[in-house]
Amino acid sequence: MESRRLGRTGHESSVIALGAAVLWSATTEDGERALSEALAAGVNHIDIAPGYGDAQQAAGPHVPAIRDQLFLGTKSQRSNGEGFRAQLEETLTLLGTDHTDVHQLHAVVSMEVLEERVAGGAVDALLKARDEGLTRFVGVTGHGLGTPAAQLEALRRYDLDTVMFPINPGLWNDPAYRADAEALLDHCEGSDVGVHVLKAAARRPWTDGQPHVPWYEPWTEPADIERGLRFALSTPGVHTLCSTSDWDVLRVTLALASEGRLTTMSGDDRTEAISLMAGEPKIPNLA
């Protein structure tokens, strides 16, 4: 699988990171299977969080044996500094490690949320965790339409190492979102910040009110999944993307990446991909 340098972290991250939300309702056997399949395909980066249902409990027992093969990305959605720290310590215990590779402010989808994390002490707790060696690097994540603008402001205020936000052809139909995302990407390139992408295989909101993972309806046909992944990875400044929380889509994603199918899109192909998504409704803001 192709790898790319994740900004100033210096890590050569596989272009696909295992999104552990696929383990939302999972057993430890499921956790072992997901990690084994991902590693076999060439994945060396995992994204996991307390908010992903059973993910930490399912994957945790298997992490120590492969810890040296994984760039471990964790996060917390808490605003209170003490609660943020406590949740990080719980994550470390569940995953059987004394540090993460990157710990992140989770679900910063707007300036209002960013200010809540500042006022509550979560930002200070995040930076202190890096100072104390509980994490090597720190970052910020978010799924919402206001995420790129909020993350750009976070980077201007604080010394953060990574960002995580959505990129797919449908979002590039939104001029405001695209402008904010491209401004964020430009800043990341200039500051050597690692860029991790979400929702590359997303199609549209669930039409039946699906309440949980995947939080959106993903593409399911391999050609459609491939188009979304290639679009995201062809966007200048992107280093890695997070697999979706659907088992079938995950397996297609791993196969495409391990077979070297996620090649750079031409400008014309990118334009066509954007056009194909023009009629799809926007996915609402998500944590």
Q: Can you offer a commentary on this structure?
A:
The chain has 287 residues and is of the alpha/beta class. The protein has a single domain, classed as TIM Barrel. The chain is built from 11 helices and 12 strands. It has helices at residues 28-41, 55-59, 63-66, 81-95, 111-120, 122-131, 147-157, 175-191, 222-234, 247-258, 267-276; strands spanning 3-5, 12-14, 16-19, 45-47, 71-76, 100-105, 135-141, 162-166, 194-198, 202-204, 217-218, 240-242. α4 packs across α6, α7 (147-157) packs parallel to α8 (175-191) and α9 (222-234) packs across α10 (247-258). The longest helix has 17 residues, at 175-191. The two termini are 29 Å apart. The mean pLDDT is 96.
Name the features.
287 residues, alpha/beta, TIM Barrel, 8-stranded parallel barrel, two-stranded antiparallel sheet, 17% strand, globular
Q: Please, what is the CATH homologous superfamily?
A: NADP-dependent oxidoreductase domain
End-to-end separation: 29 Å
Write the CATH fold name. TIM Barrel
Q: Which parts are unreliable, with pLDDT below 50 for 5 consecutive residues or more?
A: none
Question: How many domains is the backbone divided into?
Answer: 1
Residue share in β-strands: 15-25%
What's this, in brief?
With 287 residues, the chain is of the alpha/beta class.
